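Worked example 4.2. Below are the chains of a multi-component assembly; read each line carefully before continuing.
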Amino acid sequence: NAGVTQTPKFRILKIGQSMTLQCTQDMNHNYMYWYRQDPGMGLKLIYYSVGAGITDKGEVPNGYNVSRSTTEDFPLRLELAAPSQTSVYFCASRFRGLSYEQYFGPGTRLTVT
Amino acid sequence: GESVGLHLPTLSVQEGDNSIINCAYSNSASDYFIWYKQESGKGPQFIIDIRSNMDKRQGQRVTVLLNKTVKHLSLQIAATQPGDSAVYFCAEMRPSGNTPLVFGKGTRLSVIA
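Applying the procedure described above to all two chains together yields the following C-alpha cells:
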C-alpha cells in the first residue's frame, strides 16, 4: 500500500489564484481529514469527511472547499488564495472502528505571495 | 476556551537518558488520547494511544501515562536515541460521535549525542 499520498509537494501561488491540493489513500479508509500547520504550531482541522458524499467543516474552513466523490480521494480547493493561507497542508485518513489512529500524508508546502 | 496544551515547548535530553513529555487537557469528558511524532519535513506518525479506562499503556521503548484526576497525559521514552529528535504532539478525542482529534501545540525533543 502507498498509504496516503499528496500532490504537489510544494507550490507557490500568487494572491487571488486558485488551486487544488490532491489527496488519495489506498487503505479503504472511511474517514479523511485536511489539516494546516503553521510554523511552530500544531495542526488545525480544515475539513473532514466520514465517507463518500459527506463532508463537514473543521476549525478553520474559511477560504477552502472540499469534495468526496470517492472513498479514495479527498481534494482540497483553495479559491482566491491569500497570504494567510501560506502553510503546510496535511491530509490524513483512518478506519471507522475502535482505533482512532490517523495516517498522515507527507504534506504540501504552500506559499502565497 | 478548552484546549489540549503542553507544559514545555522544548526539551533537550542526553542520548541514553529517559525523556518525559507532558500534556494537559481540559475536557474531562475526553475518552481517547494519542501521541504523534513529527520529524522535520514529514507528516505526523502514530506512536501510541490510550483510552480513558486505562492509566498506563506501554509500547516499544514508550509508555503513556494518563492521570484523569489532574487531566494530565505524559509520554515517556526510554533510552532516548538521536532518532527520537522530533516534535511530539498529543491529541484528544472529545466524545461526540465523529468528532475529530484535537491536537496540542507540540513539544520539540532534541537529543544531545
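Take a moment to check your reading of the output against the notes. Chain A touches chain B through 24 residues (CB under 8 Å). Chain A has no helices and eleven strands.
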